[in-house]
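Here is a complete protein record:
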Amino acid sequence: MDTSLSTIQFVAVDAPVDIERRFLNRLFWGAFAVRAVIGLIILLFDLQMFNGDNVHYEATGWGLSEVWSGNATWDTVTLHTASDFNTGMFFWVAAIYFLLGGRWVVVPLAVNWAVGAVNALLIYHIAKQLFNVEVARRASLLVAFLPMFAFWSALLYKEAIVLMFIALSIYATLQLQRRLSVMYALLLALSLLGLQMFRAYLSYLMGASIVLAFLVAPKREAHKGLNYPTRVAMLSILLVFAAAFGGLQRAKGHLESQLNVSALERLMSSRVELATSGASGFLAEVDTSTLSGALSYLPKGMAYLLLAPAPWQFGSVRQTMAIPETLLWYALIPFTLVGMANAWRHRRSETLVIFAFTFSLTLFYALFIGNIGTAVRERTQMFAFWFIFAAAGLVLKKRGRLDASAR
């Protein structure tokens, strides 16, 4: 049997239903339990260094829910940020408290734990559709239990729900590339709207990546999904959904409000602020407000984003704690590259949305992020999907091929 990379097969065969259901059930509750333990330990021992935005989101969300309930007015709580663009987390927490009718902090936390666990399930289903069950299991286990994912969904940070909307957008796109579906078109539109409410720039990058994925379909892969005219028709339907939900108008208004400052100047301002506001800041003095300056800085920014903290970069407790899993990422890089190369050869049309989104996001964050802590936090949005390729590379190393026998 030829086991070279050029002959790798991608055969979509389901595992026995009972075995798969048992695995997914354990995956969800295991991921939920890990996040619950981390969150409760931080709360019970009042570990302030880990609380950060958690306190801000919780307090403002409670204040907003009190306004909705008629127990407070806009003048008695600090809610100016809760009415701003790109701050959906305040409304998310407020909605939970409003439905509860009281301030039970553990409930919104538990919702976040569940969202973090659901993300592992979404990665499983995306990986299974692209590769097979063994790849899906490996990738989902990484997202379920690695600290970089567990920690940021253990408290009220927006990372978990942002990753959920990203994963839902990609999953819906993969389904729509195969067949016309109003349900998945609606899911995609709602996911993009969710991204715009929580992190607007992600909705723009995702939208552009989806357009590229629908319009660029290699001829040799045309038989694997919708033909080109159908793709264009589906894209038109998606745009109608986006317009109906107000997404295009919100994007237009937001972009128009930024025209008084160039994109590079705004990125540099944000990067310098991040670099000077934390102990793990780096290269605050570099001028990236011009195209030449940004291009010369880009390799350094990408190195910090993807590879920091290095084994010798001991700093704060959080930074030092991130070193072991960063070393794990170093070990996975070769397998990730092998998995990416293989997917580009054999599943280019399906994986194009992942490549376009994660690579464009990498370039954006390389110019935007100015400290190691934020880099470790935000790169999970790329790593969640790159770990799918890493898992594929590991299976290739183990078996020499990706086929239905990979269980």
